[in-house]
Specification:
Blueprint: E1 2-7, E2 12-19, E3 24-31, H1 37-41, E4 50-53, E5 57-58, E6 77-79, E7 82-83, H2 96-102, E8 106-109, H3 113-123, E9 126-132, H4 137-146, H5 153-157, E10 163-165, E11 171-176, H6 181-189, E12 193-198, H7 203-207, E13 213-216, H8 227-236, E14 242-245, H9 247-255, E15 260-276, E16 282-293, E17 303-309, E18 315-320, E19 325-328, H10 343-364
Helix pairs in contact: 8-9
């Protein structure tokens, strides 16, 4: 069945529908990764978005049981140049098409994804709609205009109740704003006793779990849409070591008094170079974000920039000047992407140990 993608600038792309056949309206974004479509589809940070993959052939290695980043994918739709009908890989268990059907995710293939990506780069992120060919451009534009983009994505993808991933090491409370399983895997691989809590957990609820450290996860949408999370993070700074990733990084910045702003088309891919300003070392990183911390808003605050994107100079890392708290805009757990920045989990573990040693010393006296 042929369907069309209508964009709010009036552009029209006609392609073949696959996956679920329902119509959908959402924000159209693009990811430049050559591999990792399964992880991208299951990343909660893409909640309700229409994701365009710039690599031309998608689905060629199928879908397997191991590469999921969430149990229930929340991506809005998938847009590709070509969807492979006959995947070939020893781990393959089903096709991309059957997976999208099972998860009620619409797909559109056979369009010029290069042209679509250039449009987004030119105009910025665009609202779009996948709909039948019979829908006129005029009717489509009217529907796009009257359909608001969602603002409660974090509430949708966060866990509803707390749960534990037991370990015999440090107790880490992981606040779930739309957590990728890769973060949980990295913590449990280091023996951490992890307790995952909902996005709206209060500071009292977090501290009652007696954490040795708190992890602020990734997640979808505008960080300003979750003010309750900002208040919790603000109250946690100075009480326990903090490590924020992606949305967690932005929430840490807001909690410290900074501002965030929407980027023209964001960073979404697995080959973004980021420089550590202290060491000069450059890591190739996996990224997925549409908002950034405003540089000018840092003046006079107790946080400083630690990492910077080499492509556009935007802020990629922050740390508190006086407390044990830091954050990065990119994904050190990768999934998909390179693991150059995986050492940041070790930095967090070391920070926890130093904090425990100092607090135990104080208690002894």
């Amino acid at each position: 069945m042929k369907k069309q993608l209508l964009l709010e600038d009036g552009s029209v792309f006609i392609g073949e529908a696959f996956g679920d056949q329902r119509d959908i309206v959402g924000e159209v974004v693009f990811n430049t990764g050559m591999t990792g479509y399964q992880e991208i589809l299951s990343d909660p940070s893409y909640c309700a978005q229409l994701v365009t993959l710039t690599y031309p052939l998608i689905g060629n290695y199928g879908i397997n049981r191991d590469d999921f980043e969430s149990i229930s994918p929340s991506v809005g739709a998938l847009i590709v140049k070509e969807a492979a009908l006959h995947p070939s890989n020893w781990r393959n268990e089903e096709t991309l098409d059957s997976f999208l059907k099972a998860k009620s995710i619409p797909g559109l293939s056979g369009i010029d994804t290069r042209r679509l990506t250039r449009l987004i780069r030119q105009h910025g992120t665009l609202k779009g709609m996948i709909c039948p060919l019979e829908t006129s451009v005029e009717d489509g534009m009217a529907l796009l205009k009257e359909t608001p983009l969602p603002t409660k994505q974090v509430r949708e993808v966060s866990t509803r109740s707390s749960y534990s991933a037991p370990g015999r090491g440090d107790r880490v409370v992981l606040i779930d704003y739309g957590m990728k399983h890769g973060i949980l895997r990295e913590l449990t691989a280091r023996g951490c006793d992890v307790v995952v809590v909902p996005f709206n957990a209060t500071v009292e609820e977090v501290l009652r779990l007696h954490p040795d450290g708190v992890m602020l996860s990734n997640g979808p949408g505008n960080p300003e849409d979750v003010p309750e999370a900002v208040e919790t993070v603000k109250a946690l700074i100075g009480k326990v070591p903090l490590f924020g990733i992606c949305l967690g990084h932005q929430l840490f910045a807001l909690a410290a008094g900074a501002r965030t702003t929407k980027m023209k088309f964001g960073h979404r891919g697995s080959n973004h170079p980021v420089q550590d300003l202290k060491t000069g070392k450059v890591d190739i990183t996996s990224q997925n974000h549409g908002y950034t911390v405003e540089e000018s808003s840092l003046d006079g605050l107790n946080i400083e920039v630690t990492h910077r994107a080499l492509n556009d100079g935007t802020i990629e890392g922050l740390r508190h000047k006086h407390e044990r708290a830091f954050s990065v805009q990119y994904h050190p757990e990768a999934s998909p992407g390179p693991e150059d920045a995986n050492h940041l989990f070790e930095t967090f573990m070391e920070m926890i140990q130093t904090h425990k040693e100092e607090t135990s010393h104080v208690k002894a006296y």
